[in-house]
Amino acid sequence: MIQIHGLNFTYPGRTFQLQIPDFQVQQGEKLAVIGPSGSGKTTLLNLVSGIVTPKQGEIEVAGTTVSSMSDAERRDFRIRNIGFVFQDFELLDYLHVLDNILHPYRISRALRLDREVRERAALLAGQMDIRNKLKRRTDDLSQGEKQRVAICRALLPGPRLLLADEATGNLDPRNKGRILDLLFEAVDSHGATLLAVTHDHELLPRFDRVVDFADFQQTAAA
After folding, report:
1. DSSP letters spanning 116-159
2. Which residues, at least 6 apart from 205, have a Cβ–Cβ distance to it below 8 Å?
3. Which domain covers residue 39, as residue numbers?
4. pTM more than 0.85
5. What's the number of domains the chain is made of?
6. Which tens digits make up the pLDDT trace of 43-58?
7. Residue 152, CA distances (Å) to 45, 46, 67, 93, 178 in order
8. What DSSP element (H or E) covers 218?
9. Which residues of 88-114 are buried (b: 16+ CB within 10 A; e: fewer)?
10. CATH number for the domain that contains residue 125
């Protein structure tokens, strides 16, 4: 599902540098990424999704070389194929919860909003225990509720690849395992792939594989 070769990325005007010689994630795999803050874990998700592009190297997702696409092509590809649960949620506070969940369908012709999609959005909200919040503004929600809205939005299009940046980080212990169950169930039901950044080491045994970003730093320094 994901193939990265010879990647070199830097932010303009900053000393940060991310180098990944070789990295693969198999179709259907549930992979967790761990590592110290500032090591580039979130940057990896942004690169895979095409939000940013590398200085050097190639990134392939689902057989498509994302790193060579134009901005518009990457945006359409991301909306069609990738669900992204952002660490800071990226919700729009002037929209109700339901409209935030449906937002990917309103910003691109790559997705078609119909009755079935609306029903699926309500079903997901029910599974996340926020169905009674659909008409509320997101600034009236707790951090955990906002997290669940972001997860619903990411899952709604049935993505082939789900990227999760601390998807359970704002959830209480009672909800953490249940929400992870829902993420895994959604991935399995669509034959999708999960790439998750997490600091919660208690969850790691549930993933198929764990990658420590410190390994990339050591490889780059060698």
Report:
1. HHHHHHHHHHHHTT-GGGTTSBGGGS-HHHHHHHHHHHHHTT--
2. none
3. 2-221
4. yes
5. 1
6. 999 999 999 999 899 9
7. 18, 19, 27, 16, 14
8. helix 214-221
9. ebebeeeebbbbbbbbbbeeeeebeee
10. 3.40.50.300
